[in-house]
Amino acid sequence: MSRTIARSQHGGRLALLFGGPALLGIAVFLVLPFLLALGLTLTDQRLVSPEPGEFVGLRNYERLLSVSYLVQEPESKVRGELRPTAPVYSRARAVIRANPAYAGYRPLADFRLGESRVTVLAKDPAFLRALFNTFTFAVLVVPLQCLVALGLALLVNTGLKGQTAYRAIYFSPVVMSMVVVSVVWVFLFDRDLGLFNKLLSVASLGAFQPIDWLGNSSTAMPAIVIMSAWQGAGFQMLIFLAGLQGIAQELYDAARIDGANAWQRFRHITLPGLKQTIAFVLVVTTIGALGLFTQVDVMTQGGPNEATSTVMFRAIQRGVREEDVAYGSTISVVYFALIVMLVLVQRWTSRRLEGRPQ
Amino acid sequence: MRKLRRLALGVGLAVIALTSGCDRPADTSGPVELTLWKQLTKLEEPAYQAAFARFNAAQNRWHVTAQSIPQGNYTQSIVAASLAGRLPCIVMVDHPKVASFVWAGHLRPIDDLVPAATLAPISPTALGRYRARIYSAGQFDAALAIFARRSELEKLGVRIPTLDAPWTLAEFDTVLERMRASGTHRYPLDLSTRDLNPDWWTYGFSPMLQSSGADLIDRTAMARAEGTLNSPAARKFALWFQSLFRRDLVSRREPDDNAFVSGRAGLAYTGNWWEPTYRKALGNDLLILPPPDFGAGPVIGGGSWQWGIGSQCKHPRGAAEFIDFMLQPREIAALSDQAGMVPVSEEAAALTSEYRQGGKNRVFFDLMRRFARSRPETPAFPVISGAFTNALRRVMEGEIVEDALDDAVDDIDQTLADNPSYQIQPGANVRPGARQP
């Protein structure tokens, strides 16, 4: 009895010893800066300032998260003109600026409610848009990147000649600097000279109208998604490859004897065998996707019309480039809280799914 | 335990050794060491090294040791060094950041140390002023111009503008429209909008705003952008800017920097630093023209990299002697001759081969002397620059002009309201008896 206790205590100490360096690193480079950032959010500290930051309470949070709305009646109705073809409203931005009750608010989005127009207002619409963009990016890139990675892994696992070379080739974008890759893809996406438009033009026998991929609000984010999936898929491919090689060959042999075709073997042996790997890859890719910054910084600077602005980009923009480090910290802290909530929800759902009776 | 203590001691000593690296105490026998920080540049590096060597050889009290820092990290390095109390004696600063640096306490004035006779002939935009003091002085400046092909303008039958009679906005529009109609180029004009850096957008396009009769901020007290950046004149400029892209006169994003040289664009609006490339490609066909007059006279951006003295410098006299040396006409001319930058005084220009009267690049010197205007000298400049760039890019993308400008105004005014010490309080911070420039 006493020996087991001694051993477990010893084990605890040993665990602490081995974990110590990593824990110290996390404490110094993660926990401490986060606590400092938390403190900064309550001040008006600038990045560089001869004056000490002053305590401003929750002002930064209020500026970041405040949301309101404005309801407008059509102009022409007020003036009593004849029924116009489309209702005309006065410029929402001007109405807000003229009304002190809306001080600090800006239009985020608007929609029609019967005759009147409702404009959703926010004190920092750029942040909310960035938040939306970031999640859009994650929702688009995670399935795409994982599917591509799985496809590549299956491809280089078939036992064909020279598959090691293919593995190296597919993995090579991952080790390239993201900045370099981004610069190259800016050329590929160019409207007049880019490879993609040329290819599409040739493939459609000239019928295709060139697209300004990165200059168009609706195509800029998908363009970044495609480029990011291409760049990152090699990493997930390696993990899938390891997972694939962990599946016993006997299972496939047995399935073949039973007359299972390729799809059935994939559906009933490969996929179940990769369950853990897929879960891991999804989590890792999602976390990576939520930190999207480099591609945006190099390729679009958040444009056009903030269509590719992401939370990390906003945080750097406000906190470092505009030197409002308190506000940049506030963005980071709020984002951190959101991600923690997301992770908790995800864990909770995966537990529920695993714990459900068969 | 003892090992640990010894380790801690070792680390401590190493830190002390590291931190005391700058500004070593004067050795009684030799000259006093002055550290200098400049941004790393490819072309100009040998010219600078030669100039530093000349200074070190010309006297025996001071010895300047230069450290070049990569451009991307330069400002951050200065800020970090200043926070750590290790700012070098002589620092090269970008003119629009001078106010920020002074406000943050990184720089000390130079006008009480560098002789007035040295500063007097220097072009106004080559001096970094803040609250009635001079904090930095540059050996060179840059100049914006419209680059064109003489043969093409003659074929189109348009008037070739001069410094005294630049194109009016209507004339400029006609040139662009005719050029588009001729179909020679993919786009008539390249505005370098592919450069996403706010530095370019503010440097390149705020002069057009000023030429329209508006500005980035009300400069009398640097306290408000409302009524200036969203004034009717500003809106008119922004609408015109938007129309350039609507009318397909300018590409929102050229794939590379060679639009003008390769003929994809008929005209280029950029700075004198492209002149060597353009002249090599076009030879005598190259025309360097003043930017159009938007109504309030042509304006170009002014203020480039300048020398300042770190506030923690123990030997400001030595630093001032160095700056005085570098601002002498022969040094300005030497740098210009070797690296091609626009010299900042008449006397220095006369000594250069390219910028003297009749020199092939004289036009840049004249443009600078006549039309250069500094970017607003306020610590809020980074915010102003970011807000203006953001607004103009949204205008380019086709957003409602008023909304974009109003947003920029609110961004700037919010920052100014949050930081009352950014504003100029007339009379404040000027020491009694300080020499007024």
Morphology call of chain B: globular
CATH homologous group name of the largest domain in chain A: MetI-like
**So how many helices of chain B?**
17
- What distance separates the N and C termini of chain B? 62 Å
Classified in CATH, the superfamily of the largest domain in chain B is Periplasmic binding protein-like II
Rg of chain A to the nearest angstrom? 27 Å
Decide which structural class fits the backbone of chain A: mainly alpha
Mean pLDDT of chain A: 85
Question: What does this entry look like structurally?
Answer:
- The complex is a heterodimer of chains A (358) and B (437).
- Chain A has a three-stranded antiparallel beta sheet.
- Chain A is mainly alpha-helical.
- Chain A has two domains: 68-122, no CATH class; 126-355, MetI-like fold, CATH 1.10.3720.
- Chain A has helices at 2-40, 59-65, 75-79, 92-98, 125-155, 163-175, 178-188, 195-203, 217-245, 249-257, 262-273, 275-290, 294-299, 311-321, 325-355, and strands at residues 67-72, 106-113, 116-122.
- Chain A contains 15 helices and three strands.
- The mean pLDDT of chain A is 85.
- In chain A, a hairpin with a 2-residue loop joins strand 2 and strand 3.
- In chain A, 66% of the residues lie in helices and 6% in strands.
- Chain B has 437 residues and is of the alpha/beta class.
- Chain B has two domains: 31-141 and 303-362, Periplasmic binding protein-like II (D-Maltodextrin-Binding Protein, domain 2, 3-Layer(aba) Sandwich); 144-300 and 380-422, Periplasmic binding protein-like II (D-Maltodextrin-Binding Protein, domain 2).
- Helix content of chain B is 43%, strand content 16%.
- In chain B, strands 1, 2, 3, 4, 5, 6 and 13 form a seven-stranded mixed beta sheet that branches. A four-stranded mixed beta sheet of chain B has the order 9-10-8-11.
- In chain B, helix 2 (45-58) links the parallel strand 1 and strand 2 (62-69).
- In chain B, helix 8 crosses helix 16 (381-396) and helix 16 (381-396) packs antiparallel against helix 17.
- Chains A and B meet through helix 4 of A and helix 3, helix 16 and helix 17 of B.
